[in-house]
Amino acid sequence: MRRFPAVAGSFYEANPAKLRKQIEWSFLHPVGPGKIPEVPTSKGKRSNLFFVSPHAGYIYSGPVAAHTYYYLASEGKPDLVIIMGPNHTGLGAFASVWPEGYWETPLGAVKVDAEIAKELVKESKVLDFDESAHMYEHSVEVQVPFLQYFFGNDFKIVPIVILMQEIEIMSRITNAIEKVMREHEGLDVVVIASSDLNHYEPYELNNEKDELAIREIEKLDYEGLYRVVNDMNVTACGYGPIMGVLMLARKFNKRPYVLKHANSGDTSGPKDSVVGYLSVRFGD
To answer: Rounded to a whole number, what is the distance in angstroms from the first to the last CA of the chain?
Structure first.
């Protein structure tokens, strides 16, 4: 079973050499970290287990996403990356896992960890195997080339997209992820929440709304984030996945560190209508 890229050539370059250059541009952009990290040949105990990373076109969100991958790559190659993103298309089940096979991008094919996917579906009781939810969805896909840039195809993924972004749904999913991580102690697992922040408002107002969400993230307050999104009309598309990594950070006693907050007006776009982007690590 193969999942072919849906947004290569639109969200990021379809040509492998150009894609590598685009990822390097993201790191070296003034909004990015300013340098490309070295991947250690031998790795110690991983500090940063959970991340938030944006998922727009690389010319807009790539420099912010690069902050996440700077820290992730600096601690070495993980065995497994669980990537949770929102379901923008409305297709498929309420919470969907790609079951097995490979995800292809211009940089190669990454294997899906079918056994861990089965465990998550069985344990969570809310995740379903459903390829249709993933076929045209970009939120998970755009994270994969960043990982491949550093680790080749020598790691596995579990792609999850969530349509019903409710606290109870995320609690069940994160309980299942916690169980997998604790029961497979020797498995080096990283979890990425893929989300943009507020959408399509003027620069200053957009930043103000983003800050409402960031405040709750810095407190690990997933209920507060849920309230902000619903009561203050903060249009963060992947608030469910973000709630998920906040829950996991609490379970594993990890602290939040905001690495970069910027918007499309800071990177490549006009400032009259912007989208907010955030990179966060959760570590010691």
So the answer is: 38
pLDDT at 225: 98
Q: Please identify, in words, the CATH class of the domain defined by 2-283.
A: alpha beta
Evaluate whether 116 touches 80 at the Cβ level (below 8 Å): yes
Sorted by where each begins, the domain ranges of the chain are 2-283
pLDDT digits (tens, 9 = 90+) for 8-45: 999 999 999 999 999 999 999 999 999 999 999 887 88
Which tokens hold the place of 29?
């952009």
| Each residue's pLDDT tens digit, 207-256 | 999 999 999 999 999 999 999 999 999 999 999 999 999 999 999 999 99
* Residue partners of 253: CB distance under 8 A and separation at least 6: none
**Under 8 Å between Cβ of 193 and 159:** no
